[in-house]
Automatic annotation (TrEMBL), chain A:
<dbReference type="InterPro" id="IPR036061">
    <property type="entry name" value="CheW-like_dom_sf"/>
</dbReference>
<dbReference type="InterPro" id="IPR039315">
    <property type="entry name" value="CheW"/>
</dbReference>
<feature type="domain" description="CheW-like">
    <location>
        <begin position="15"/>
        <end position="155"/>
    </location>
</feature>
<dbReference type="GO" id="GO:0006935">
    <property type="term" value="P:chemotaxis"/>
</dbReference>
<dbReference type="InterPro" id="IPR002545">
    <property type="entry name" value="CheW-lke_dom"/>
</dbReference>
<dbReference type="Pfam" id="PF01584">
    <property type="entry name" value="CheW"/>
</dbReference>
<protein>
    <submittedName>
        <fullName>Chemotaxis protein CheW</fullName>
    </submittedName>
</protein>
<dbReference type="GO" id="GO:0005829">
    <property type="term" value="C:cytosol"/>
</dbReference>
<dbReference type="GO" id="GO:0007165">
    <property type="term" value="P:signal transduction"/>
</dbReference>
């Protein structure tokens, strides 16, 4: 199945605009088309009874937007806020409805292009993440970067 | 933004069809009401006219025939009755189908409806009836032309209309004799050259239909008075039509068509008057709902920004800024109120839809029902009205199907053979109460109980008040109907109704008087967008409690607190009220305040206290719904943005009450033990 996805990906476009985001010790490549804006950390409001990876709400330009900590989904340890911490606001579609969500990023590197041609097959083993969270893994500056499937991660 | 004219026609037609339906339904009760007949006729006429204009030929043709038949009622030759109304309603539905999805309709259906209509409206003992229904095109057989009276509004010239060009258009239909009437034109020095005070009488010799003439004036109809009367071959009107001094501009042939026969007092077969403008003195503007929503969003943001400004101004010492902040606060709240007012729609627009439903149900179920509506002018937010439609359909269906007994059963009681359903709306404080009342048999607690036991919802023999037993009706999949009819008995309905009402931040209550009927009461907030809230602090988080749910605030004294350690009940003036510590519920960090407060909230008859650290004050709360990602969060109904720009959650009191009740229940046996 992965092979089919890779093939299809290569057929559509080789290059892909992404935002490089550091989460824990990993680098994630978020499709640039999803990203609405990147903002500095703002006061958050805790939501009691919500799932652990959606712990709070923030105000983004007058709209109440959930703040997601996807490090929780990847089993990464909690890290305190640093000077590099940013919130990446993305627009995704969940079950056909548009949803805006903020994502805590330990660091935002740059907007760049990655090539789908260098796509590595998502290894079945050696990864403690749910395979459906990862679209594919590719290489950037000789480092492995993860292209996450945000819809799956947030749903 | 370009508006699709066809879409505009569809919208307009939908509204006209609604008013037609209402008029028809009223007509079945008061068949002689001229105004209703005229309303129905006008609606038909406009649909026909604009239908033709926007290329809905089928609609125009069908409506024309409908109109022709209906015209007999208008002229008083026959009286409207239930049969005619039923067929007319079917015809109305057919027009709607033609407009919405012409491919789904079949011309045969239309013809059948027209045949029915013609059959009902034919006058049995008048020999002329057949011929008066026959001239479908509106042209009598012995007719030679039309006499047309044209009187424009005086300011017609300012709109760029050229009255003479319209006369030329008339000439294109056939030879014309035109007489200008200058009676209203003042002396030269008093004359305003920009007004049109001249009226015209035109004698048109043509076999064209009345439609062709109307079409000439299509774009100025609202700004003129147009009378069209047929001229008959045997003289009739023609003789008196034009006085001798008439300025005859038509070729001499015009005279030939008017033989000098004795004027016979022939009844005028068609006389169409257009004077729609006189009816609405208050002018209205049609606005798209999305634009209103956008406006409401903007006002919401303004209210938030204003709250931030006020906070800032009050924390400083600049008097000038404080004054401006107060001024803006006043303006913003005024703007908020009027914007909300714009979104308010009278309930009557909703109630009207149900009359058809009741009419059809009462016929299908053979239960004569009188449908009474009260408080149609009670206004409610437009979005809310739209979402109320389905729940009310369920409730009314239930009332007719389950509530009202069959005629035989009713005969055995002192009640009138005709059942009665009342749909009422009224304001109570910041809420609107909508009630559906029937005068049927009432709820049968024993039967509901039996059913609940059968479904395993209730232990057999368990003690339970009737009121609690009725609550089983809201249980998903619960139905006591013995047979499944097309209308009810499938067990979907009441739970959906309850959920819809709760999603509107409302509540639903049932009350019944055995043998005398059932009342379902819906309590609804006036608007969905902005509420008055009580801003409170729990730990370091701030929460909004809707003020409409708050009954009172009391202090949780140290003594109470200590006593309450073991049990979470509070004695409020002799009543035992369970309470929830929001600190525990929300996992608040830090130490609890020394003087915690209890906010007593209520939902229906049940009350519950919510313990908070501090009551900050009342707060204009612009409700922002929670993201879909937080759909699993139950304790909060939404969020808002506070003066300092941070987000705060709005408590869902209904959910907390349920939670508190469940907790209280679980503690009770422990206490008893």
């Amino acid at each position: 199945m992965d092979a089919i996805q890779t093939q299809a990906g290569a057929a559509v476009a080789d290059a892909m605009q992404v935002v490089m985001v550091g989460l824990g010790s990993e680098i994630f490549a978020l499709e640039a088309g999803l990203v609405r804006e990147i903002i500095d950390p703002v006061p958050t409001t805790k939501v009691a009874g919500a799932r652990a990876f959606l712990p709070s709400l923030i105000n983004v330009r007058g709209n109440v937007v959930p703040l997601a900590d996807i490090r929780v989904r990847f089993g990464m340890p909690h890290r305190p806020e640093t000077a590099d911490t940013r919130i990446v606001v993305i627009d995704i579609e969940i079950d056909g409805d548009p949803v805006t969500v903020g994502i805590i990023a330990d660091k935002v590197y740059e907007v760049t292009e990655i090539s789908r041609a260098q796509t590595q097959q998502t290894p079945r083993l050696g990864m403690h993440w749910k395979p459906e969270f990862v679209h594919f893994i590719t290489k950037w500056n000789d480092e492995f970067v993860i292209v996450p499937n945000m819809e799956q991660i947030l749903n | 933004m370009e508006l699709d004219p066809t879409e505009t026609f569809r919208q307009e037609a939908a509204e006209l069809l609604d008013s037609l339906e209402l008029a028809l339904l009223d007509l079945s009760q008061t068949p002689q009401d001229r105004e209703l007949i005229d309303t129905a006729f006008r609606a038909l006429h406009t649909i026909k006219g604009s239908g033709a204009m926007f290329g809905f030929e089928q609609v125009a043709a069908f409506t024309h025939d409908f109109e022709t038949a209906f015209d007999l009622i208008r002229k008083g030759e026959i009286e409207a009755n239930r049969d005619i109304v039923s067929v007319a309603l079917a015809a109305k539905d057919y027009i709607r189908a033609l407009i919405e999805d012409p491919s789904s309709t079949d011309a045969i259906i239309g013809e059948a409806i027209l045949d029915d209509l013609k059959r009902f409206v034919s006058v049995p003992d008048a020999p002329g009836a057949a011929s008066s229904a026959a001239p479908a095109a509106g042209v009598a057989t012995n007719q030679t032309g039309w006499r047309i009276g044209i009187a424009y509004e005086p300011d017609i010239l300012r709109n760029g209309t050229n009255p003479l060009a319209l006369l030329d258009d008339l000439r294109a239909l056939g030879p014309c004799a035109v007489l200008a009437n200058l009676d209203n034109v003042p002396e030269l020095d008093a004359l305003d050259p920009e007004t049109c005070l001249v009226t015209w009488d035109v004698l048109l010799t043509s076999d064209c239909g009345v439609d062709a003439i109307e079409d000439v004036f299509m774009f100025v109809r609202d700004e003129m008075k147009l009378t069209i009367e047929p001229v008959l071959a045997d003289g009739g009107l023609l003789e008196e039509a034009l006085p001798p001094e008439a300025i005859v501009m038509a070729p001499p042939a015009a005279a030939a068509v008017a033989p000098k026969a004795a004027p016979a007092p022939e009844p005028v077969t068609e006389k169409v008057e257009f004077n729609r403008r006189a009816e609405d003195k208050t002018s209205t503007v049609r606005v798209q709902a999305e634009r209103l929503d956008e406006l409401m969003d903007r006002v919401g943001e303004l209210v938030i920004a204003q709250a931030r400004l006020s906070q800032l101004a009050h924390s400083g010492s600049d008097i000038a800024i404080k004054a401006i902040a107060e001024e803006i606060e006043r303006l913003a709240s005024g703007l908020r109120d009027s914007t909300m007012g714009v979104r308010m729609v009278p309930m009557g627009s909703l109630f009207g839809r149900f009359r058809r439903l009741v009419h059809d149900l009462s016929r299908d179920l053979a239960k004569p029902v009188e449908f009474v509506t009260v408080g149609e002018d009670t206004e409610l937010d437009k979005t809310m009205i739209e979402r109320l439609a389905d729940p009310l359909v369920h409730l009314i269906r239930n009332a007719i199907d389950h509530g009202i007994e069959g005629p035989e059963q009713r005969a055995g009681t002192a009640k009138d053979a005709t059942g009665r359903i009342e749909l009422a709306a009224r304001y109570v404080g910041a809420q609107v109460l909508v009630t559906v009342t029937d005068d049927g048999a009432g709820l049968d607690a024993a039967r509901i109980r039996a059913k609940a036991e059968e479904q395993g919802l209730l232990a057999p023999g368990a003690a339970m008040s009737d009121q609690d037993i009725y609550q089983f009706l809201f249980h998903p999949g619960f139905s006591t109907a013995k047979t499944i009819s097309t209308l009810s008995g499938r067990g979907v309905g009441m739970d959906v109704v309850k959920r819809t009402i709760e999603s509107l931040r409302g509540s639903i209550e049932l009350s019944t008087r055995p043998g005398n009927g059932t009342t379902v009461t819906l309590r609804l907030p006036l608007t969905l967008a902005i509420i008055e809230g009580l801003l409170t602090r729990v730990g370091d988080g701030r929460y909004i409690i809707p003020l409409s749910a708050v009954e009172e605030c009391v202090e949780l004294t140290a003594a109470d607190d200590a006593r309450a350690r073991g049990r979470n009940f509070l004695n409020v003036r002799g009543d035992l009220v369970p309470f929830l510590r929001l600190r525990d519920l929300f996992d608040a960090e830090g130490e609890a305040d020394q003087h915690q407060k209890i906010i007593i909230t209520s939902k229906g008859d049940t009350r519950i206290g919510l313990v908070v650290d501090q009551i900050i004050g009342s707060h204009q709360t612009v409700i922002k719904s929670l993201s879909k990602l937080h759909a699993d969060v139950t304790m909060f109904s939404g969020a808002t943005i506070l003066g300092d720009g941070s987000a705060a959650l709005i408590l869902d009191v209904a959910q907390l009450v349920t939670l508190g009740q469940a907790k209280a229940e679980s503690e009770k046996p422990a206490e008893a033990a």
